[in-house]
Amino acid sequence: MASTKKQKRKTGLLLAGDIGATNTRVALFDPEGDLRKPTRVNTYAGADYPGLVEVLRDYLKGSDTPVVAACFGAAGPVVEGQVSLTNINWVVNSAELCAKFGWQFAWLINDLKAIANAIPLLEPDELKMLNAGIPEKHGTIAVIAPGTGLGIGYLTWAAGRYRAYATEGGHADFAPVNAIQDEMLGYLRGKFKQVAIEHVCGGVGLPNIYEFLKASGRAEEPAWLANELVTSPDPTPVIVDNAMAAKPGSEICQQTMEIFITVLAGEAGSLALQLGATGGIYIGGGIPPRILPAFERYGFMQTFLAKTGYEYYLERFPVNIILHPEPGLLGAADYGVQQLHYPEGV
Fold this sequence. Notes:
Blueprint: E1 13-19, E2 23-29, E3 39-45, H1 52-60, E4 67-74, E5 78-79, E6 82-84, E7 91-93, H2 94-101, E8 105-110, H3 111-118, E9 127-131, E10 141-146, E11 150-158, E12 161-166, H4 179-189, H5 206-216, H6 223-231, H7 235-245, H8 251-275, E13 280-283, H9 292-297, H10 300-305, H11 311-314, E14 319-322, H12 327-341
Parallel strand pairs: 1-4, 4-8, 10-13, 13-14
Antiparallel strand pairs: 1-2, 2-3, 5-6, 6-7, 9-14, 10-11, 11-12
Helix pairs in contact: 3-12, 5-8, 7-8
């Protein structure tokens, strides 16, 4: 935070943002109003800007709206009010933002902390249930979110409410769960010094799976698909779209998606055990809502439960996919409001 906590808060709006590797979303919120009703929600392509400051200048251009504070969820670890974005060459500093825009407060939190923070606010129709389970009241909640990369976070109950935490678990080592994944790990070790989970289980990971299947001879790449990939600026949507359409000749894309779902399910099950997430597991990120049929098609829940001797335990854990279009934005706004109302973290 760029200002002392003992300052008397001025009146004004809260600006909240979700800074992703691909897009940055920004909106204004009334700290005393309904956070589910933001105003001026804009999306900016990160590649079009040298940094967040330039995005915000565009957003605020010509506006006389009084902004008192801002909160941003960012894809990277936040250290002493600064974050170096993981998959885009931006550095964001809270003190600099306050100085440049005249805000009284600015907070930076990890994007998974923002998504996790939104979970208690979500409505039932903003979730796709994969397993009803038997949730434990106030039980720990786990969040795993494949987008461009892979984010992992969690919530614990304390002092009458859930508190959100982020991790950098997507950068932990990838652990194969079957023979084909063993072979894939060997292939990826030739590409990366350390094979992280997100090298397989994220938007950046889908092309890695695809290339493994092609290079190993486990699947053929038809000429029309090779041409689509060559002419596309990003191979991931091509792979996803063809996998979901199950277009004849796209078997390599379908096999890619099957491995992706299997890895995601295995990691989600492991995370559930590691955290004792009896309150539920929530799957966020930009990819899951686009591939909903794949979760049933490729047996997500069967793999999630496949922890020998603990199947009965994991069956009790609720599993849901987040369908809300902007959970990171909602969670960042809620965190900002919490800080404005309870500056000592009470």
